[in-house]
Design brief:
CATH architecture of the largest domain: Orthogonal Bundle
Shape: globular
Strand order of the largest sheet: 1-3-2
Distance between the termini: 20 Å
Strand content: 5-15%
Number of strands: 5
CATH class of the largest domain: Mainly Alpha
Radius of gyration: 20 Å
């Protein structure tokens, strides 16, 4: 397992939540060279989609320069995580102004996001976005004793389920309710747990 790769993955802005889950699994299986070679069938089983969907996701991740896919004859593909340079956080000089009355330098801070990055990933993945502030309060309570990365995985699986079932938005619970009632635990099963396995058992 590459903790560095998983941390890097969480910060990536990927429009397709299924592709992000695939990337998280690849990061989880990555060795010291940030490479892994799970079969498409194995990835499809973990994510709960078809082999074809996995191929679309890995193609999208490759086009986003997040992974490199090497096809190997007679066995599974080799996936290499392209950690590269983290450009998601840029150093920005804070604009300043001066109070002419007492010549005091005052910092002007604009656009400061009060939500942490893991919550933002959850918010983007959840299929119905309503009452962000209240949801964040529930998020803080839940994540005191439930891993944030696992919660995001459960959320992505829930979002995929609602999409596949074409669930109308009015029947999707508010995110604060979903968290408060701990409905994410319904998606914490063997199919969605990202477990470290021997890479030798992943091909084929």
């Amino acid at each position: 397992m590459s903790i560095q790769a998983l941390s890097w993955c969480i910060k990536r802005d990927i429009p397709n939540p299924t592709a992000k889950l695939v990337l998280m699994i690849l990061c989880n299986y990555a060795n010291e060279n940030n490479s892994s070679y799970p079969s498409e069938k194995h990835l499809a089983k973990l994510v709960g989609v078809s082999d074809r969907s996995i191929r679309r996701c890995t193609k999208q991740l490759s086009e986003l320069n997040l992974i490199k896919v090497e096809q190997r004859l007679g066995t599974s593909n080799l996936y290499t995580i392209l950690l590269g340079v983290d450009t998601s956080v840029q150093s920005v000089r804070t604009p300043t102004t001066y109070n002419t009355k007492d010549n005091t330098k005052v910092s002007i801070k604009k656009g400061v996001d009060k939500y942490d990055i893991d919550f933002i990933e959850f918010w983007k993945a959840y299929p119905r976005r309503i009452n962000k502030h209240q949801t964040y309060q529930k998020w803080l309570l839940v994540t005191k004793n439930f891993p944030t990365k696992k919660l995001i995985v459960c959320t992505i699986r829930f979002a995929n389920e609602t999409k596949n079932n074409k669930t109308e938005e009015k029947f999707i619970p508010h995110p604060s309710t979903w968290l408060n009632q701990r409905r994410f635990e319904d998606y914490e099963n063997k199919n969605i747990e990202i477990k470290k396995q021997s890479l030798n058992n992943l091909a084929g």
